[in-house]
Amino acid sequence: MKIIAGNWKMNGSRATLTAMMGALSEVKTENKVILCVPFTMIDTESSNNVQIGAQDISSHARGAYTGEVSGAMLAEIGTKYVIVGHSERRMYHDETNDIVREKAKMALENGITPIICVGETMEEKRAGKTLDIIEAGVRESVPEDVDGDIIIAYEPRWAIGAGVTPTAEEIATAHKVIADTLSYMGLDGTPILYGASINSENVADIVAIKNVYGVLVGGASLKIDEFVSIINNAN
Ligand code: PEP
Description:
The protein has helices at 14-24, 71-76, 87-92, 97-109, 122-126, 130-141, 168-184, 203-207, 224-233; strands spanning 3-7, 32-36, 50-54, 81-84, 113-118, 151-154, 192-195, 214-217. By secondary structure, the chain is of the alpha/beta class. It has a single domain (3-234), classed as Aldolase class I (TIM Barrel, Alpha-Beta Barrel), CATH 3.20.20. The protein has an eight-stranded parallel β-barrel, surrounded by four helices. Helix 8 links the parallel strand 7 and strand 8 (214-217). It starts with a strand and ends with a helix. The mean pLDDT is 96. The structure holds phosphoenolpyruvate.
């Protein structure tokens, strides 16, 4: 069983989600499918085949934080998963590992599984810092004394939306560092997803890499046929 998570970012509509849910209801798969959609679509009911998730959560429980949505609010409408620390949140909203950890904590306190993203920029990759960034990302973004499920997503930031992926060896090395860090933290067995430029052609090879439990898919998760093929090809 692999986890196939989609991140719609600020794309799609309730109509496109209805069409996607309809298509996914026909898919026979052992894989767990999660679609992380904009806040306005989160009240869409999850089905046997697809769980609906969010793309962000406030690091605060309540109060004067205009525009933010709390863990309790997400839980109230049945949200089971939330992406935290996506590279676009880190880049455009200056989210640090400390903020990401607070968000993950809020998710867990409300019974929501955080999908915690870590990954290096091209500048960091060129400077040979990839593994340090990933290790620190996990150590600092995962809350202490985790009570509940978490998922980690390794997303090399330079490969997101770029149509290129790291080599299989680079992915294997990154996932091993994440698995070892999680093990050190007492979190053996935590699923680690790979994300960035996944498509129906490369998904089978990538999920075959050791310590890759599934994928986080951006652009391709909006295209019905392509997303269905990704789910099928990941089997
Ligand atoms: C993402 O933004 O999480 C992502 C994986 O994007 P893409 O698949 O489009 O590279």
